[in-house]
Task: structure prediction
Amino acid sequence: MASILSDRTSGSTESTWVNPHKPIGGRLITEPFLIALIFVGIGGILMAQRFAGGLGAVANISDGYPWGMWVAVDVVIGSAFGCAGYVMAFLAYILNKGKYHPLVRPAVLASLFGYGLAGLAVLVDLGRYWNFYHLLLPWYAQPNSVMLEVGLCVATYTIVLMVEFTPAFLEKFGFENARRKLNRLLFFFVALGVLLPTMHQSSLGTMMVVVGHKLSPLWQTQMLPVFFWLTAVLMGFGVVIWESVMASLCFNRPTEKAVLRKVAELMLVTTALFVVLRLVDFAVRGQLGAPFGAHGTLMFWVETALFIAGILVVLPKPARTERKALFLGSSFVLFGGIIYRLNVYIVGFIPAVGPWSYFPSLAEIFVTVGIFALEVLLYLIFVKTLPVMHAVNAKHG
Amino acid sequence: MPDGLVDREAEQLGDLDSYEGTLGGLTRREFINYCAGVAAFLGLPSAMGVKIAEAASAAARRPSVIWLSGSACTGCTETLLRTNHPSLDTLILEQISLEYCETLSVGSGHQAENWKKKAMQENHGKYLMVLDGAVSTKDNGIYAKVAGQTVLEMVQEVAAGAAAVVSIGSCGSWGGWPSTGVNPTGCKGLPEVLKGKPVVTIPGCPPNPYNFLSTVLHFVTFGKLPELDDKGRPKFAYGRLIHENCERRPHFDAGRFAMEFGDYGHRQGYCLYKLGCKGPETYANCPSIGFNDVGQGTWPVGTGHPCFGCTEQGVGFSKPIHELASLKSVAPPNSYPDVRSEKGNGASPGAVAAVAGITGAAIGAGAVIASRLGKQDKADESPQSTGKTGA
Amino acid sequence: MTLSRRNFLSRAARGSAAAAAAACTAVAAPPAANALQRPPKPMPAEAVGLLYDSTLCIGCKACVKACKDANGMPVEVAPEQTAWNGGEWDTPVELSGKTLNVIKVYTNGTMAEKDRETDGFAFIKRQCLHCADPSCVSVCPVSAMTKDARTGIVNYNPDACIGCRYCVLSCPFGVPKYEYDSPTGQIRKCQLCKHRLAENQLPACADVCPTGATLFGRTEELKAEAKRRVALKPGERTHFPRGDIAGKVGGARDGHEAPVRVAYQQHIYGEKELGGTQCLAVSAVPFDKLNLPTDVPETGYPTLSEGIQHTLYAGMVGPATLLAGLVYLAHRNTKDHDVD
Result:
């Protein structure tokens, strides 16, 4: 079985290079597509209401909870899903693990959508969105603001992702010259694509340091940047595994088992490191009693249980090549990461001069669902029409 | 003047012979004249002279009232004269028998004193004692004497046989203005002097006559006193702070104050708190009923001068008129936001259902996918599937 | 290579676990031992603010109304009153997009005595405290929140603001609020009536207070007055000024004499909390009962968040170095073949 990679030789001329990626093809208008479309439509109508009537007309955010579902889920959690591209770029191009290459492009696509739509969610959530470009103008910049750094980093990273994904377009439409030229410069964007998420994912954690006592002692620590970076990494691995297994199930494709085994091992190590560091952090801060009564105790245990479940599922060696175990393990880890970020931004947040209560409104939920449905929709369109996924060699299992 | 009418009215008098003995040695004619004189003195129409005569004869059926005066200005008696319902004549002639009152008695000297003693004897344990004015206690009370007896002694003597004791006015209630400052004569309120005997106090300077009359007539009608507070004040009149009933309270609540006499706010009728109104720490019903039955607003604040707390010991005549009042217990109205009120938009049933639905669907789908993947894994491991694509 | 990458990685993993524990200690330790903290910001020399004395406050809410008038803020109806209050009566429950200043009441039991903790009631005024080291200024990405260098007043500029509401999230006292019911909402908070100060007029709340419960002045002078107050004993007669404590802004006004009725808490709120605030408060009821944050450090939280940012990103040296290394590796690993 010729390896896919052996199709490429160094210094190949255009006539001998065979694109290892291929569109999956198949019908665009499928059931999942239509369902996603409906949710996108509902979300769109609600978004129009938000712009016409103000945030209060649609969302349940209030004076006590200025950041609700749209920030916590769409932006903070959504961008963590977008870290698939981050981890794969690091593995493939920095550590030079050639075997990860097949996973890179779908990861970059997932990241592009994750960050792009997080950006869309930000625009929906900003109260004075027409001034958003002020973030990019140096004379408005307030350099101590963590949010400024996050905003600039995310904006830059989205552009980097677009550049990283451009080859897929160029290949599809046959712009071979452009493709080769771009290819020579891509290494710089790849480097940026590893630096930027390191910066802003950790800063998403730093953002909550300033709220001080308004964040439950279960989560408030100056280690927040480390924890957010770690969850970004482990969620990145989780997305890669999850997406790969789902693609194999839905599109009847083989999984790259050897590669996934390695990714699962990395996910296991980072998740274990996260759990251990959380414990050490409690001890250093003198908060070992917090998990037994501090604000948000129940959700803390849910979060921890999910991470530990994820670890236990992929701990046995044989499990790391079984698709069920990979699916469950990555699902638990992803869920744990989701809950962790939800906890830091909403559950653990104790507004000043309370008591305040918050639960997303139905409309808020449907806007979020709509944004995620849009991501699913676009993903389906892109993988079916553009060379994203590695071509399946009929002889390769 | 009734002179020419007396004879005609005398025909309607009925049997005056039975009046013999109760007339204190007066002839019938003298008695009728006397009653007419009383009516004239009271400013009553001449026909009232008959009523007075009838009332006098029915004295035994009406409760006796003995009205004493201590160190007083007579303002409380004056306030009583401003009553319209009941009118004074109805009160004195039909409802009570005012046996002794230094201001209103036509008789005086030994005549009045003897009458008092006789009334006390005949109605022992049944008469109502009223005191206006404070009781001077220094040096055994020599600074106030009537008929050679100190007021201090007199009140104790009269109270001994009284069914109920009422002190009208701040002086009688807690010492009033004579008791403030240096208090050279040791003036005290009646409750302080009459230890052991419950005293109803009707403070005010002067109090609204209806506070007193309602209390007395409650006693006359029902045979018992109305509900009293811990200072012996009837709760129906002194149960609330002036601040609670003041017609300018909305201005207080909205922060509209007269800052100086005559300024815009003062002319608009704004709250007088900043000018020293003691309404927030004074218990009385002045804003509710006003004075003199001439309509709303006939009380000090209504005329634009801050209340100085005349009913309240420690406030009236003690605190400077323009010193800011302290806010006594005013349960803040429920429009005041609590420091710790529940706020925010909580869960709606729809939203909870949506989240539960999404979570449930995710878990359910996950379970289905996991089992399908499990089957695929098993299929992969089985010998037949080597080399085939995973389904 | 003698040291395989795998061996290197596994050794690194073990070593880094130990390093992580050490790093945690340095980073996550309580502020006193914290390595990542920048120095606190001092109060400007001419800092101005308010002194609120809860024992003098009678809950008349003249300040609430005056603030609304002076700043053109609309009526706000409490949520439980919407059935019968059609806007004729301004009844704010809390600071919000419509209310920059509010008086709230603390009640306990029978509410029999004012300024008593048990079976009593007391009032508290809430408005921006104009912190010395404000969180809102530190977090705003577009400099919409700024602190005046001279007077220390924390200003808001709606033209710069993007409405991200990070300031709302970060204020430890829950002050800035956003107008959720407007499609063009902005952040609202007390700005010490700087437009009135510019005309030598008092902030509206200090101007109308009938008892002098709200005083305006330089924070240094207000602090001295606050210290004088908390040392007073019940029964002492003393002078309470009104308006500007120095008698300059808004003209001289007369104060009033009154006896001290209750013992003050030996605590000036805002003197030390989170680096100090320019607006102070004294009270007879403990401040935590008045629902103000009291279990807070003596340095502002920006010292912690900016400490992290400055350490990691000072001069962008760290990121630049990292980027250089990444660029080198990426180039080396991809120059021979196509990037996916």
Observations:
- Residues 1-14 of chain A have pLDDT under 50 and may be disordered.
